[in-house]
Design brief:
With 471 residues, this protein is an alpha/beta fold. The chain is built from 13 helices and 18 strands. Helix 5 runs parallel beside helix 9 and helix 6 runs parallel beside helix 7.
Length: 471
């Protein structure tokens, strides 16, 4: 109990002495130190582990690194796979994919977060190669590269055949043997390529591009003999598939055995089960062609004989119908004379009809002199009617003028002056009221006959209007 309280008790010569003991305070750690200790402990205990889990939150970074989480039913752990390791993967990780990863557990000290640094990855169930094959197949099929509409037909009689394969493999020997036996006339150009290993895909792409630079190649065979899926994996490479699609020359894919299918088989214009079958598909057997030619010759000869017999029968038929040329000519002369007579009669009848029509027309319109007389009479009538109209119009206007003059004279101020009225003006202005006048003003008086000058001596008041009046 004393130890727990920080005291120490000793016995000496039956005397009990107590000494105060001050317990040392624990030294605090920084966050960085604690994260460092945790990292050392975790990384020291968990060197490398195999881990199984489902991928989630998968994010391929622009730097090339893969960031994701691995989870099971109750837990999850952060994971990272750097570009150097993920470039070796044969497939592309996806969310929801269950995988095995092998890596080292580590702690990211700035955040205090532990994760697993993946060095390798394998899908659970199907192998990595099978998964990569299925992913690439689905991708290219979605782009339409497997569509039958983009497949090109092969030429029936190719003059120049291109080969992309290994120059030392069994495939080239089988292809050459069949072509030499069946179709000796064809030219064959080999573009050597590596068909196995890490460099195979790039080598096949280069060989396809090299063959496409030639101007007269009619068809191209790309393939190799059988082997494991790893041996033939270069024909499942996306670069090879796109090179086949981009080829200007129709491509036959001839990879492995009949049961082997590669991505190249799906994108090629034609898939051959084996390289030997590709050689048989690209050209017909020369003996078969020769037999077809001989059969065509026999059919042609038979057709010509039938045609000649038919022509002979027609000649005999026409010969029996043929009459004496002189007699035939006489018939034509008689026919010409008959047509000439009919033509003359027709012309005479036409002229007679036209003459009758002209006479009837002349009777209707009369002679030109008669027409002139009629027109003169009409002109005289029109002139007389026009003069009469002008006269009536003039008289009417003259009457209206007299009426207007009478009304105007009745309203004239001069007529008012004739009745004894006069007009008083001051400074050439008419005076209508005495309000504008004053005694001594000089005014002018306009009478009916002449004018007079007067001075205002007195202004008189108008009883009705209340104004002044008087001179």
């Amino acid at each position: 109990m004393a130890d727990q309280l920080g005291f120490s008790i000793t016995e000496k010569d039956e005397d009990i002495e107590t000494e105060d003991f001050v317990k040392e305070e624990p030294k605090p750690l920084s966050v960085s130190e604690l994260n460092g200790l945790i990292r050392s402990s975790i990384e020291g205990q968990f060197r490398k582990v195999w881990l199984r889990g489902e991928i989630s939150n998968f994010k391929p970074h622009s730097s090339g690194h893969f960031y994701f989480s691995l989870k099971d039913q109750t837990s999850q752990i952060s994971a990272i796979m750097f570009r150097g390791q993920n470039s070796k993967l044969k497939f592309t990780p996806e969310n929801g994919m269950e995988v095995f990863v092998h890596g080292k557990v580590t702690v990211y000290e700035p955040r205090g977060q532990y994760s697993i640094n993946c060095e390798s990855m394998e899908p659970v169930g199907a192998g990595a190669l099978q998964k990569a094959y299925e992913q690439l197949k689905a991708k290219l099929e979605k782009e339409g590269l497997f569509a039958l509409t983009r497949k090109r037909p092969l030429p029936k009689f190719p003059k120049h055949i291109g080969l992309v394969t290994s120059p030392t493999g069994a495939a080239i020997k089988d292809i050459l043997n069949i072509l030499r036996r069946r179709y000796k006339a064809a030219r064959i150009t080999l573009a050597p390529a590596v068909v196995q290993g890490d460099t195979a895909a790039a080598s096949i792409v280069s060989a396809i591009e090299l063959i496409n630079k030639l101007q007269d190649v009619d068809v191209l065979i790309v393939g190799r003999g059988g082997g494991s899926i790893e041996d033939m994996w270069c024909f499942n490479d996306e670069r090879v598939a796109r090179a086949i699609v981009a080829s200007k020359i129709p491509v036959i894919s001839a990879v492995g055995h009949e049961i082997d299918f590669t991505i190249a088989d799906f994108v090629a214009d034609l898939r051959a089960p084996t390289p030997s079958a590709a050689a048989e598909l690209v050209c017909k057997n020369a003996d078969d062609l020769l037999e077809q030619i001989r059969m065509s010759e026999r059919r042609l000869a038979q057709s010509m004989r039938v045609l000649i017999d038919n022509l002979r029968r027609e000649v005999r038929t026409f010969s029996s119908r043929l009459v004496d040329p002189q007699r035939y000519l006489q018939d034509l002369i008689l026919r010409a004379d008959e047509l000439t007579t009919r033509l003359e009669n027709g012309v005479f009848r036409y002229l007679e009809i036209r003459r009758t029509q002209v006479e009837l027309a002349l009777q209707k319109i009369g002679t030109p002199l008669e027409k002139i007389v009629r027109l003169q009479k009409r002109l005289e009538n029109f002139s007389m009617r026009m003069q009469n109209g002008f006269e009536r119009k003039r008289q009417k206007l003259q009457s209206r003028f007299r009426e207007s003059v009478g009304r105007l004279e009745s309203l004239s101020p001069l007529k008012v002056l004739d009745r004894g009225f006069s007009v008083v003006m001051k400074n050439d202005k008419i005076m209508t009221s005495t309000a504008t006048l004053k005694v001594g003003d000089e005014v002018k008086i306009q009478l009916a006959q002449g004018q007079a000058i007067a001075d205002i001596k007195k202004l008189l008041q108008n009883e009705k209007t209340g104004g002044q009046n008087g001179l």
